[in-house]
Amino acid sequence: MDQLLAMRIFHALVEARSFSAAGEMLGMSHSSVSRQLKQTESALGVALVNRSTRQFSLTPAGERYHRHCIDIIARVDAMTHAMTDEREQPSGPLRVTVPLAIGTLELPSWLPAFRLRYPDIELMLSCSDQYVDLLAEGFDVALRISGTPLADSSLQAKLLTASETVLVASPGYLAQAGLPRTPEALASHQCLRFARANSPDAWTITAPDAQIHRVSLSDAFATDAITALFAAALAGTGIAAFTERTVRAELARGTLVRVLPQCTLGRSHYYALYPQTRHVNPKVRAFIGFMAEHYRES
């Protein structure tokens, strides 16, 4: 006896509350549904349906069996959907919101490979350092960079990577202003400020001897756009703080130089956030999996 088929027929019978209606739902005859029920009861050794009255009702054993049927059918269908999704090439529109650092400064390191792997995904990328409500604004997934653990929410969060926060400046600025050797020496330098809402007005720097230094940031230049801060650092206007991943290419080329590399400003964490659902959209799963692989290998 095909037990899964028997469970589906029994579930349909319970939902329809009659043999004839269940047969219509399944494209089977009344007698076929009745015959399947008898075979199931015989295999289980218990009565599942009361036959002493014209009104349809389940026996206690039938109620328990039906609960198990619902659970097993749901699990089998979920597995089938998951395997089907894996076979299908993700396609169609995917709305993603990312910080400016990922959507502009880091974009050359990941977008070409993503487009090559998933040519049928229509990626609509929104770049902003402002908080975005995924559900209210209709985004499928968000990438966020945070120096602190994310607050609890109704969203699923996957940690992609962590990156050290580093101080950098252009060679031209350091040639003119000198290379600071200690955190205290930063007081005589132009320390560029990232002035997003709730962002600190000072750097907290831990020296190699574990002493903590608080360095006030300059009022000469402040911006709420990481791209403007990046451009200002490249232009030689002062020292700025970025995640190491954001400035990795510039450090390799020598257009930016590490300042106080022996000190630490902490670490920032890269997260992917997406709505909680039983079945994650294949496009969302593909994008998050790709970004996790990208950060793991780079």
Brief sketch in words of this structure:
The protein is α/β, with parallel strands linked by helices and 298 residues long. It is built from eleven helices and eleven strands. The chain folds into three domains: 3-84, Arc Repressor Mutant, subunit A (Orthogonal Bundle), CATH 1.10.10.10; 92-158 and 269-295, D-Maltodextrin-Binding Protein, domain 2 (3-Layer(aba) Sandwich), CATH 3.40.190; 164-268, Periplasmic binding protein-like II (D-Maltodextrin-Binding Protein, domain 2).
Walkthrough of the structure:
This is LysR family transcriptional regulator. One of its GO terms (molecular function) is DNA binding. Residues 1-59 form the HTH lysR-type domain. This protein has 298 residues and is α/β, with parallel strands linked by helices. The chain folds into 3 domains: 3-84, Winged helix-like DNA-binding domain superfamily/Winged helix DNA-binding domain (Arc Repressor Mutant, subunit A, Orthogonal Bundle); 92-158 and 269-295, D-Maltodextrin-Binding Protein, domain 2 (3-Layer(aba) Sandwich), CATH 3.40.190; 164-268, 3-Layer(aba) Sandwich (D-Maltodextrin-Binding Protein, domain 2), CATH 3.40.190.10. 40% of the residues lie in helices and 22% in strands. It is built from 11 helices and 11 strands. It has helices spanning 3-16, 19-26, 30-44, 60-87, 100-105, 111-117, 134-137, 171-177, 226-234, 248-253, 282-297, and strands at 92-98, 121-127, 141-146, 155-169, 193-194, 202-206, 212-216, 222-223, 240-243, 257-259, 267-275. Strands 1, 2, 3, 4, 9, 10 and 11 form a 7-stranded mixed β-sheet that branches. A two-stranded parallel sheet has the order 5-8. α1 (3-16) packs across α4 (60-87) and α2 (19-26) crosses α3 (30-44). The longest helix is centred in the N-terminal third of the chain and has 28 residues, at 60-87. The protein is elongated. 27% of the residues are buried.
